[in-house]
Amino acid sequence: MFNTDLKRYETVDVNNFTSDIEIKLCRMVNKSWWNILRLSIQKKVTVEQYPDLDKNKTYILCVNHSFDEDILSAIYNVDRNVYMFHGGTHQMEHNPVFYAL
């Protein structure tokens, strides 16, 4: 398995992740998109905490993020045993099997 789209992210750093033109374009699009959404959505959007989970049921919780700390902070909030499947960029490119920690 080889995903060529991920190869670019192995060499980028904070200073060379994107260009100034891309950032300006993204800000213009985001501002326009936010105004369109604000006018088209009539309901107020609220964010709720996770509900209380039933101890006798099994659940599958999916978290997809680039940073391990964000995934771990989501897992620590669950009050039961959790298996975390983690794979890095190299595994996504070359290995279809992720590792369970």
Structure description:
By secondary structure, the chain is mostly helical. It has one domain. It is 36% helix and 4% strand. Strands 1-2 form a two-stranded antiparallel sheet. The longest helix has 21 residues, at 20-40. The model has no long low-confidence stretch (mean pLDDT 63).
Summarize the topology.
Blueprint: H1 20-40, H2 68-76, E1 85-86, H3 89-94, E2 99-100
Antiparallel strand pairs: 1-2
Strand fraction band?
Answer: under 5%
Q: Describe the biggest sheet?
A: 2 strands, antiparallel
Average pLDDT figure? 63
Major sheet: arrangement of strands = 1-2
| Low-pLDDT residue intervals, each spanning 5 or more residues | none
Helix content: 25-40%
Strand segment count: 2
| Overall tally of structural domains | 1
